[in-house]
DNA sequence: GCGATCAGTT
DNA sequence: CACAACTGATCGC
């Protein structure tokens, strides 16, 4: 963006700088002149994106009417999330005492506001203290920060600018990005990874895509080709659990247990550094058995923190499926002419309706576009149960948004006298439903009954914690960039419990 | 008509 | 209400 330098010449792409300082933040060049050429690198992006990362989550921009310095209204403050992962996990920060000369076992972990000695932007922020972690860093950062004298509006604007690829989608030391298609061509990026085929991750991919190869699982690749009409020359399918050397980096995709085709991405750099990007995933015990996670040390973990808060509890998927199946059985026994409806996004939740189909020995009806997608998975157990006639099956799959009381009331005719619907979502959570599925109460309206069931394809808080404690990364980063936690050096544990 | 962006929905 | 992920409306080209 900064330079108009000729694209398309033969220069090999420069990797995003790998230098992270002791606190896990990208190192700035000590001499500005030295690196003017790579002015839009990883570190630049990191700092340019500002420190108020809450803006990345803000739903709307500030109203244009307001004076430039006017603070956001109260509601916006409510979406501000800067808590540390320790807070999120409800753990005490490990004490440093413990004598025994355990060296520097302390964990360094704080919000970026704290890390850079900057007050949270509650008030006009000029005087907000210039202390920062290391004196050497302080100079360059505060110099940058205060170019305009006031709060770093340029940084805030960059963070706001949805066209700028945020640093946390770039893999340092490589020319790779993950799920970064909505920013056009990303300078320095010569390989674009797609973790899975959900809209908020592939957004920006259109048939006009021409910015570079798209690496993803074979199943995701089929969906990209099929649904988005991307030129197949750009699509690079990778088999799971297979090492590929891409631009000198060894890349392996691991099953993410999120939706069909979703993958964790494991990067092994030529210098031995190992990065793991989880994409969206549901962590599990069996995931921990993967050789790449058993053996090697992970230097930096990019974590899906969707439900990184103790309030999010949900049961194992198998338990929810058992509940759904037995509920369906019960309703059918009471009223054999019951239509069973399962809500689902474009892809995901297949195991819910597949289990019903298998247990009740009925086919699965869904509309033509979803049938096409489901068949493309190449899962014979699923494909053989799909039928194209809605009268032939008492089991229908609908978009989640269509599963409500109004819809499908009209389908009540001779064939169906009642409707039993399931909405599998991650945010159906509570103490009660987390432990006792039987306590889930449906919403009923006449002969239509709707159950919200806590079937999540993201990790629960506990699963996330177990996963991180197992992996024990040297550094940890939030892929949604709400919080960051970093750890000093080589200490041998992450959490004390 | 296409795509990017934002608002709204469950 | 939460959240992810989608759907629809609007705007610019």
UniProtKB/TrEMBL annotation:
Superkingdom, natural source: Eukaryota
Biased composition (Low complexity): 26-40, 129-142
Gene3D superfamilies attached to this UniProt entry: 3.40.50.12650, Ribonuclease Z/Hydroxyacylglutathione hydrolase-like (3.60.15.10)
Keywords: DNA damage, DNA repair, Nucleus
UniProt keyword Ribonucleoprotein, yes or no: no
Residues covered by the DNA repair metallo-beta-lactamase domain: 385-475
InterPro entries: DRMBL, RibonucZ/Hydroxyglut_hydro
Region feature Disordered, mapped onto this chain: 1-81, 123-157
Record-level GO BP terms: double-strand break repair via nonhomologous end joining; interstrand cross-link repair
CDD domains per record: SNM1A-1C-like_MBL-fold
GO cellular component: nucleus
Single GO term (MF): 5'-3' DNA exonuclease activity
Compartments where located: Nucleus
PANTHER family found in the cross-reference section: DNA CROSS-LINK REPAIR PROTEIN PSO2/SNM1-RELATED, DNA CROSS-LINK REPAIR PROTEIN SNM1
Entry's family note: Belongs to the DNA repair metallo-beta-lactamase (DRMBL) family.
Protein name: DNA repair metallo-beta-lactamase domain-containing protein
Source lineage: Eukaryota, Viridiplantae, Streptophyta, Embryophyta, Tracheophyta
């Amino acid at each position: 963006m900064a330079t108009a330098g000729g694209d398309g010449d033969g220069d090999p792409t420069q990797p995003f700088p790998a230098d992270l300082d002791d606190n896990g933040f990208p190192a700035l060049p000590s001499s500005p002149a030295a690196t003017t050429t790579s002015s839009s690198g990883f570190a630049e992006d990191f700092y340019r994106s500002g420190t108020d990362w809450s803006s990345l989550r803000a739903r709307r921009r500030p109203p244009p009417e307001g004076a430039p310095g006017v603070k956001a209204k109260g509601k916006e403050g409510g979406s501000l999330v800067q808590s540390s992962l320790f807070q999120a996990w409800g753990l005490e920060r490990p004490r440093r005492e413990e004598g025994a000369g355990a060296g520097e076992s302390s964990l360094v972990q704080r919000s970026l506001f704290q890390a850079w000695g900057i007050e949270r932007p509650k008030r006009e922020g000029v005087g907000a203290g210039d202390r920062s972690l290391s004196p050497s860093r302080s100079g360059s950062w505060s110099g940058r920060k205060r170019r305009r004298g006031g709060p770093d509006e340029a940084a805030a604007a960059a963070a706001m600018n949805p066209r700028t690829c945020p640093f946390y989608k770039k893999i340092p030391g490589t020319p790779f990005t993950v799920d970064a298609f909505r920013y056009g061509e990303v300078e320095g990026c010569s390989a674009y990874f797609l973790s899975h085929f959900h809209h908020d991750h592939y957004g920006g991919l259109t048939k006009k895509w021409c910015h570079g190869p798209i690496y993803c699982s074979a199943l995701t690749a089929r969906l990209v080709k099929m649904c988005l009409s991307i030129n197949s020359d750009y699509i690079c399918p990778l088999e799971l659990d297979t090492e590929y050397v891409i631009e000198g980096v060894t890349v392996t995709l691991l099953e993410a247990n999120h939706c069909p085709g979703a993958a964790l991405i494991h990067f092994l750099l030529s210098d031995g550094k190992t990065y793991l990007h989880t994409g969206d995933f549901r962590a599990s015990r069996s995931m921990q058995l993967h050789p790449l996670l058993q053996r090697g040390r992970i230097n930096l973990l990019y974590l899906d923190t969707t439900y990184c808060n103790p309030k999010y509890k949900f049961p194992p998927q198998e338990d929810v499926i058992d509940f759904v199946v037995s509920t369906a059985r019960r309703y059918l026994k009471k009223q054999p002419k019951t239509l069973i409806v399962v809500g689902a996004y474009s892809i995901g939740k297949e195991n819910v309706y597949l289990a019903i189909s298998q247990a009740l020995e009925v086919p699965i009806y869904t509309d033509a576009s979803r049938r096409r997608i489901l068949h493309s998975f190449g899962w014979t157990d699923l494909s053989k149960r799909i039928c194209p006639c809605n009268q032939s099956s008492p089991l229908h799959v609908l978009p989640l948004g269509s599963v409500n009381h109004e819809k499908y009331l009209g389908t009540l005719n001779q064939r169906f006298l009642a409707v039993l619907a399931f909405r599998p979502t991650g945010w159906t959570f509570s103490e009660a439903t987390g432990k006792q599925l039987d306590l889930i109460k449906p919403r009923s309206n006449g002969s239509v009954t709707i159950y919200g069931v806590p079937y999540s394809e993201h990790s629960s808080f506990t699963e996330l914690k177990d996963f991180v404690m197992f992996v024990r990364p040297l550094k940890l980063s939030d892929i949604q960039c709400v919080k960051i936690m970093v750890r000093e050096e080589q200490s041998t544990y992450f959490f004390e419990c």
